[in-house]
Amino acid sequence: MEININNKSISSLKEPGAPIIIVTLPEIAEAILNACKEYGIEVAGCCDNETRKLDDLYCGVKVYHTPSLPKYFPKARLIIAYHNLQESAEQLSALGYDEFYSPLELLKNYDVKKYQHRVTQLFMETRIAVTNKSHESYFDKSITYLRSLDVQITTKCSLKCQSCSNLMQYYTSAKNTDTEILKSIEILADNVDDISEYRVIGGEPLMNKDWANIVNGIIEKDIKRKVFVFTNGTIKPKDEQLESFHGKDVNFYITDYGNLSRNIDVTEESLKKYNISYFRKPADNWVDCSGIKKHNRTAKENEIVFNECCAKQLYTLLSGKLFSCPFIANAVELNAIPNNRFDYVDLHSNAPDLKQKIERLVNMKSFFPACDYCVGRPKDPTTAKVYDGKGMIEPGIQAPKPISYKEFI
Ligand code: SF4
Ligand code: SF4
Question: 109 and 147: one domain?
């Protein structure tokens, strides 16, 4: 069935009709709710695939589990807050819905300063800008667009979570990426239309002593770039490093591992001191997805795994190659899967058709050969059709030593 998503929403949603539901709860869902109130649009509820979000009201509104939504609302008008419109609409369409809206118009004149949000105002501004860009690109099929790029600057981590989805638990000789990574970023940026956010990640990116230079190097090429540094709160950034981000769109995303995040409070204080936007979030809701083994699935089964995967557009840059997800990036880096040129694009290959190769990877609709080695990474493991992992797991359990695996050399 063809999916139709409306980018003009206000006049239709103000009309009487089926109940209005906000789909998924990223930070911007709060702004969408506020905007609906401003326009006199009554929201009946929200829905999300993550069961942990069902316990409480969200900004005073009831949250439903997406797969169960038809039980409560056989008909609904759905405003998709999730950055990937197509992915959300496909799931909802399979549940029998056909009336979808992007919040683009609702958020067009949204004044962040008028409201107090659950995240900092700066963070909300950035999230809205990124989601808007992502939705605009959906309506403009002519562009090659990356909502985010994970710039993996190290495979070292100060923690060793045994179920790390980025596979850090397998590294025996973890190492930093040098500033050459900036060259790879520019090759990629020259061959796509837009990258909304650069996510500097590891392992723990602050393990790489060059991390702040890399962040500044990304922005040096274009002051409008947005950078998010993903940290686990174990290492406090130095004052001079934070000071060097003044006037730049640098944001922090801090995962709170409780006692393991031993420097999280001082990090938060420093970020406040330098007026750097951040979001602190507990490490929770982990879906087991870190096993590596050949499954010998049929093409149809791998297609289902890929379609159900919530990480397939976490484009990752590692060792000069572009990957569709962190699993493939690190499995290749570890030689834990056979080297297959269809799994990535080598940005330094000087291939005359580099742009087309990148487009193919970004617009992949079936699956990558590496997906057969992955247990799958569904949003909701309880409803996944093909998934070989353990389901929801306790986050942040530490591995006493690196986990062994079969190497392909
Ligand atoms: S903190 Fe844990 S989950 Fe995060 S990168 Fe390190 S090992 Fe992986
Ligand atoms: S290997 Fe395939 S299924 Fe696994 S995380 Fe990557 S894209 Fe998703």
Answer: no
Place of tokens 């306790």: 394
User: Rounded distance, CA 297 to CA 406, Å?
Assistant: 19
CATH number for 319: 3.20.20.70
Look up the pTM and report it. 0.87
pLDDT tens-place string over residues 131-154: 999 999 889 888 999 989 999 999
Contact (Cβ atoms closer than 8 angstroms) between residue 252 and residue 229: yes
Say if residue 338 is in the same domain as residue 223.
yes
Chain centroid to Cα 333, Å, comes to: 21
Same domain, 81 and 198: no
> Which 8-state DSSP code applies to residue 67?
G
pLDDT digits 0-9 by tens, 264-285? 999 999 999 999 999 999 998 8
Ligand 1: residue of 150, 162, 204, 211 to mutate (most ligand atoms within 8 A of CB) is: 204
Around 80, how many Cα atoms within 13 Å sit in the side-chain half-sphere?
Answer: 28
| Residue at token pair 């942040």 | 396
CA distance 303 to 300: 5
User: What's the domain range around 343?
Assistant: 143-393
To test the ligand 2 pocket, which listed residue (292, 294, 328, 375) has its Cβ within 8 A of the most ligand atoms? 328
- Rounded distance from Cα 76 to ligand 1 centre (Å): 39
Residue 401 included in any domain = no
Phi, psi for 82 (deg, rounded to 5): -65, 145
Q: From atom 7 of ligand 2, which residue's Cα is the shortest distance away?
A: 312
C-alpha closest to that of 363 among 177, 143, 104, 37: 143
Q: Are residues 325 and 179 in the same domain?
A: yes
Question: Dihedral (C-alpha) 211, 269, 220, 157: value to the nearest 10 degrees?
Answer: 20
